[in-house]
Amino acid sequence: MPLPTQNWRAVTPVALASGTTASTLDTLYTIGQAATYSDGSGRTPGSGSAWTWNRQQIAGTTEACWGVPPTNTLQMGYVVAGNAASPTPQMMPGIDNYSANGLAIAMNKNSGSPVSFPNAWTIGSPTSPFGAGQFSGYIMGGAATTNGTMYYWECQEGFIVQVVATGGASSYVFGGGAFVDPYSTSTGNCESDGRLYSVMSTGSGRTWATTWSASGLDNSYGVFKGRDLASKGLNSRFAIFNVGSVTTCRQAMMAQYITTATSYLTPSGDIPYLPYSVTASASTNAQTGPFFGELRNIYFTRAAAAGQVVSNGGVVQGYILSPQATASNTSLVLKY
Amino acid sequence: MALAALNWRMLAPIVLPASPTMANVLDAIYTMGNASTYGDGTGRTPGTDSAWSWGRDTTNTNNVGVTTACFGTPPLNPPSGLAIKALFAGSVNAATPTMVTSPSVDTWSVNTLLMGLCKNAGAYNNANPAANLGWRDANPFTTGQFTGFVRASLNVTTQYTLPPVAYMWESQEAVIVMLSGNGGTSVCGVGALLDPMATGALNAEADGRLYCLMTSGGTSLVPSTFLGVTAAGSPTQGGGAGNAQHFYVCSLGNVTGVRNGLQSAFYYPTASMVYPSGERPLEAIPYTCNSAYSGQLRQVLWSAYGIGGQEYRYGGSTVGYAVGSSNYSAGEIIVLTR
């Protein structure tokens, strides 16, 4: 049985005040308080698709934003954090090191109710910043030294942030949520609530490669595209929590390769929605097992530019997630 | 809006004689097509559920007294009346049947299985063998739009050996045939294999379907990895040169042409690419035709490694059937779900 349909929504993009971690995090926090979506419809944190976002400030400077999804069976909490120093937060074992001015992303399950964030985001192992439950450790996200415009999309169980650099020629992405539908409730395939929880990023100090989904380019940085161990701290990540009360994760990536053109539409001119299958990735970058499932209401589609809205007859159909605002590349569509 | 799900069923395979004749292969298709039970022992009535109805041509002047063609009618010809017929043919004697000439040119070859499809088809034209050419006619079904033949195998007498086995799977609107032995495997399929996933005159035939010919071709066997980029002999990839692998999609409307279909995405599954529970992934295969998205295969899905001819069961229930490069060695497969 498929999990419930996710309804992706977009908040109006916001220009960063500067390319710093504090500015980036403050922008995420501000977006998370929005009362309306970009299409003018109302937004109430904690309901519909709207996440609830809070922040942690140290001496008046924002160092972490933590978010809670409106649908949250397993009491998930997600945190995006960083500062200009060289802290030693709990990193995902064997995956990334923290680098100053970077963004770190992590998740926590069984956080308690309501989800809280009582500890410093840098607190040492085995204590969770969320105070309870299982903390994944951080993966590295983009370089917060990038100035530009922040795009934010959210659904009942996931959020995605894209910072498009000034000029639009590059971007980085991070996100978290129950992105994968395992389409199976057999033992080992999913958590007790049928979900698989994850965090993802285009990597530490990396921008989203335009060739990210092409065959033979497993090493090309992309979204929902991770790998184990190799080149620690340099690669795009897609970490899926192992099921149960554990803190460990597996790296995952797409199980197919595809490159689309702007002409890749149905003959009648509609955009296609191609499933994004997810399987584990190996240290050699190759796809391996186990197989995890498909992204939820996120699909490959025609080549498009970042920030585009897909509409048909004036009705929003979805939002484009793509590497560049200045050119059309193989992209994903987040279905409305 | 997706089309109705197809329910694939597997006929009991037929072991062919060593060095089988063309007639042996066609008779196997005919025999499986007239079986009263499926491979799992359940009942089968041609013309109902997933069961096609099959006839054969044993009076063709090309080779009187032996089978030179089998023609099949699906149980579900859609409400719009796009009467479809599938045709398999071949002979030890030379012939000049209508072959597909575009986008690629396939040519006649003795002892090679040929496959074609006719939309809005009339009856198979062999009522008067002395006068009717049957499968060798410009349109073997007299009326409608015949695609012409593509090669659906290599030389059946010399290629599929020790022992050669004929497999057939059928659903309400499509059929797939596999010839396999120690010498290798060929796979072909015909019918409404693609779901355009969209309605409208530009996207599909009047009945909402896309009719297709799928073949590993007559120049290469199915490789153990056929779901990835440009695999010669891949039944799913399409795009081959003349006589090679094709995935053809019938041009829309009352025209006879076909268009190149291509897998939109590429896959490199492994034996370990299964769920943690051990279950198989069953994932859609989307297609591109003339640079446009053209939908996805209907209940024909990629999965982890397997062996062609195998049946997959979970919890005592049949989930689907494997079609692949070998009937004894694991490799990439497609799974036809029941």
In short:
The complex is a heterodimer of chains A (336) and B (338). Chain A has one helix at residues 21-32, and strands at residues 9-15, 52-58, 61-68, 77-81, 102-109, 134-135, 139-143, 148-155, 158-165, 171-181, 196-201, 237-241, 249-254, 256-257, 274-281, 287-304, 309-312, 315-321, 329-335.
Strand content of chain A: 35-45%
Number of strands of chain A: 19
Instruction: Provide the succession of SSEs of chain A.
Output: EHEEEEEEEEEEEEEEEEEE
Q: If you compute it from the alpha carbons, what radius of gyration of chain B comes out, rounded to the nearest whole angstrom?
A: 18 Å
Oligomer: heterodimer
Relative helix content of chain A: under 10%
For the biggest β-sheet of chain B, the strand order reads: 11-12-13-14-16-17
Average residue-wise pLDDT of chain A: 93
Order of helix and strand elements from N to C terminus of chain B: EEHEEEEEEEEEEEEEEEEEEE
User: Number of helix segments of chain A?
Assistant: 1
Structural class, judged by helices and strands of chain A?
Answer: mainly beta
Instruction: Identify low-pLDDT runs of chain A.
Output: none
Radius of gyration of chain A: 18 Å
- Helical coverage of chain B, percent range: under 10%
Percentage of residues in DSSP E strands of chain B: 25-35%
Please give the largest β-sheet of chain B: 6 strands, antiparallel, barrel
Shape of chain B: globular
Give the overall silhouette of chain A: globular
Question: What's the average pLDDT of chain B?
Answer: 94
Low-confidence stretches of chain B: none
